[in-house]
Amino acid sequence: KRRIGVLTSGGDAPGMNGAVRAIVRMAIHYECEAFAIYEGYDGLVKGGDMIRPMAWEDVRGFLSEGGTLIGTARCKEFMERPGRLQAAKNMIAKGIDALIIVGGDGSLTGADIFRAEWPGLLEELVASNELSEQDVQPFKHLNIVGLVGSIDNDLSMTDATIGCYTSLTRICEAVDSVDTTATSHQRAFIIEVMGRHCGWLALMTGVATGADFIFIPENPPPATWKEDMCDVIKKHRAMGKRKTIVIIAEGALDQELNKISPNMVKDVLSTEAGLDTRVTTLGHVQRGGTPCSYDRMLSTLQGVDAVRAVLECTPETPSPVICIVENKIVRRPLMEAVAQTKEVATAIKDRDFEKAMRLRDAE
Ligand code: F6P
């Protein structure tokens, strides 16, 4: 019987539990044994009770729960080889040689490094008499499959990451609430949304709520942004609009790559447009709560395919990440997706904003 471990890593995202549920149940369906690794890579490094067998009923009710019920952490030990050595030993102790990781690009890269090192780690464990040749013999290859759980929708090669639509829904609801009070007072609001270095949440919120102005890192505004923004907003006001909503991504920059902060925008709207202006930073409410139907569906379909990928991949197959492209669940080489994601950051650093936008469009 194959033994498959699942862990969630990095920032939690709504829908991660749906993925864990699908993986556990699909593993059981294919007559494998499923193990939950608690608290992300921390659990892998600590081993013991942090790696627990999962039965069908252990994931009952998971689909509609937000966050991650098996816990997550940003683990420093796993970033160093001794931590990964310990993790390999713990996995062999439990008979696990396949891992499904639900996390962001950093967590998935860590998993691929682990896979590349795996034979060397086993040799080291044998050489130091921690394990015998017999112990490691059945575990010569490690299978890694990634699912992207992140509200940021920042991984290339997939149209959506698990959690991004729940977050977008939550943000839109918040903007709708701000709208009513803004309209009552004829105020302007600067609403800062998450996304780290990615502007997807900010851009889609702007589209979905009819915001007046949007700042995203991939398309920084020119040096004239203060005047440009005031012109647009004054035009909207002249047309009878009683409120002003500006959406700013937390990673927003100007073309010189200086940060544009919500307070900078507030000062401009107060002094130059003469508007009574407030700043609302939505924070972690954007990441919490019940997953929307899309994230339940996405995490379930991807969890199903992740188990199939474990069973189908040969030692020669590059580690896959399960994606969704034009509404189809597809597998892509994990490290290619990570490399393309990094290219966006490099394009921004090189101030090649056209390329950054093109690379995001390609997603
Ligand atoms: O990656 C998800 C995310 O919520 C980002 O949007 C945000 O920048 C970051 O995590 C916040 O991290 P933390 O929860 O560690 O404050």
From TrEMBL:
Complexes and interactors: Homotetramer.
Ranges where the Phosphofructokinase domain occurs: 3-309
Lineage: Eukaryota, Fungi, Dikarya, Ascomycota, Pezizomycotina
Protein's name in the database: ATP-dependent 6-phosphofructokinase
Catalytic residues as annotated in Swiss-Prot or TrEMBL: D152
Annotated binding of Mg(2+), by residue: D105
Cell compartments where the protein resides: Cytoplasm
Keywords: Allosteric enzyme, ATP-binding, Cytoplasm, Glycolysis, Kinase, Magnesium, Metal-binding, Nucleotide-binding, Transferase
GO cellular component: 6-phosphofructokinase complex; mitochondrion
Role this protein plays: Catalyzes the phosphorylation of D-fructose 6-phosphate to fructose 1,6-bisphosphate by ATP, the first committing step of glycolysis.
Residues the entry annotates as binding substrate: S150, I151, D152, R187, M194, G195, R196, E250, R278, H284, V285, Q286, R287
GO biological process, one term: fructose 6-phosphate metabolic process
A GO term for molecular function: monosaccharide binding
Family: Belongs to the phosphofructokinase type A (PFKA) family. ATP-dependent PFK group I subfamily. Eukaryotic two domain clade 'E' sub-subfamily. Belongs to the phosphofructokinase type A (PFKA) family. ATP-dependent PFK group I subfamily. Eukaryotic two domain clade "E" sub-subfamily.
Residues that, per the record, bind ATP: G11, R74, C75, G104, D105, G106, S107
